[in-house]
Amino acid sequence: AFIYRGEPIRNQFPALHQSVYGKPLVYFDNAATTQKPNAVIEAITAYYSTINSNIHRGVHYLSQEATEAYEVTRNSVAAFINAPHAYEVIFTKGTTDGINLIADTFGYSYLNPGDTVLISAMEHHSNIVPWQIICGKRGATLKVIPMNESGELLMDEFERLLDDHVKIVAVTMVSNSLGTVNPVAEIIKIAHAKNIPVLLDAAQAVQHTKVDVQDLDCDFLVFSGHKMYGPTGIGVLYGKEEWLNKLPPYQGGGDMIKSVTFEVTEYNDLPFKFEAGTPNIEAAITLNTAIDFINEIGLENIERFERELYQYALKQLSFIQGVRIIGTAAHRSGAISLVVDGAHSYDIGVLLDKMGIAVRTGHHCTQPVMDFFEIPGTLRISFAVYNTKEEIDVFITSLKRALTILI
Ligand code: PMP
Predict the structure, then answer these.
(1) Which end of the chain has fewer CB atoms surrounding its CB within 10 Å, N or C?
(2) 207 CB near ligand 1 (under 6 Å)
(3) Ligand 1 within 6 A of 201 CB?
(4) What residues are annotated to the active site?
(5) pLDDT tens digits, residue range 145-155?
(6) Displacement of CA 84 from its chain's centroid (Å)
(7) What is the pLDDT averaged over residues 242-259?
(8) How far apart are CA 320 and CA 308, in angstroms?
(9) Distance (Å) of CA 178 to CA 15, 208, 336
């Protein structure tokens, strides 16, 4: 187990210390959502027990405290991804919400008939459907960077597709179903040489590796709090100031205005222009605790430890006959997808569940990936900092047992 301050990290996660069906829980569905450390759970209770109030509006003490805490998280997020300014950090509901915000506002401003939006073959549905919707509304076309059988993007094809019609490129940093780590820095460099902005989906990246928006020079970056040990219902959209200022508001309502008459509204400055209505105050404030948790361990340590787990799991899986890994890119992280000859992933998943092991089966919101590999779905395991080699051993033994039942 990952030892931190003389104690296994997992001791800080109460949800990991339960039994399901009388078996100790092995939680390998971290790409879907992570469990929460005590610090985050306690911060949520503390918030509702003390400074609970609406932000940015009240003259009273509690409202000022809550507003300050909310803005403290914005500063922490900015530092976490090395954003130049905290006002370039917009709070959203999550990755999906952030992508919809950009697809809608960017599309409204910059997409016209004949234009192209370029995504990749391994996008989560949340980085496909919002672009389909806006392309449909604006008469633009959605095009896809293809991948090879290993689940690696074809960079030559990317350059070929990147013609003058492309108005924006939107790609994932790490695939949630294949584990592929994409060469996003290179993608951004190539796109920027043609003055084309790039949105990065960092939902499977920020909890595993250091993401530096200035290093990458991405124009937009989105991720979710719940996949990085934080609460559900909060996400981040980072956008370069110049872009966020150029885009129109997404939703209208309270907080995003400076003044309103029935004739005309003057919009608020960044970041408030994009934060209409009462946000998820509790989740925004307690996301700060999750960031502290990650920072205290150190992303380099997390990355090193998780890489070991990942390699260990691949090695152990290689000894099981009939197991085929889907996604064999040279650079992978987070998730391992597999299928087994003669057994359906769902049936294996059900049996593993009864043995206390939480995995995910199906298309993982990446149906086009499954179509590409001509499979209905995979069985996916995905790791977090609290997982152990012993858990992988339990998983491997249980998988073997499930296969002897099924095959
Ligand atoms: N993109 C990727 C790569 C993801 O893994 C996920 C979550 N599975 C999402 C987007 C969507 O995130 P959320 O559901 O938190 O909006």
Answers:
(1) C
(2) no
(3) yes
(4) 365
(5) 999 999 999 99
(6) 21
(7) 96
(8) 19
(9) 27, 15, 6
Predicted-assembly ipTM surpassing the 0.85 threshold: yes
- Within 81-196, residue ranges assigned H as helices are 95-110, 129-138, 155-161, 184-192
**Is the distance from CB of 58 to CB of 245 less than 8 angstroms?**
no
Q: Element (H or E) spanning 224, and its range?
A: strand 220-224
Q: Structure tokens of 234?
A: 């909060």
Site to substitute for ligand 1 among 29, 91, 93, 96, most atoms within 8 A of C-beta = 96
d(CA 374, CA 377) in angstroms, rounded, equals: 9
End-to-end C-alpha distance for the chain, whole angstroms:
33
Q: Is the dihedral of CA 5, 7, 10, 15 positive or negative?
A: negative
176 lines ligand 1 (CB under 6 A): yes
Identify each DSSP E strand in 59-175 by its residue range. Answer: 89-92, 116-120, 141-145, 166-172
* Ligand 1 near 88 CB (within 6 A): no
- Taking only the tens place, the pLDDT of each residue in 29-40 is 999 999 999 999
Q: What is the 260 CA–ligand 1 centroid distance (Å)?
A: 35
Gap between the Cα atoms of 71 and 79, Å rounded = 13
Cβ distance 339 to 178 under 8 Å?
A: no
For 387, the token pair is 């997982």
Residue 399 CB neighbour total at 10 angstroms: 25
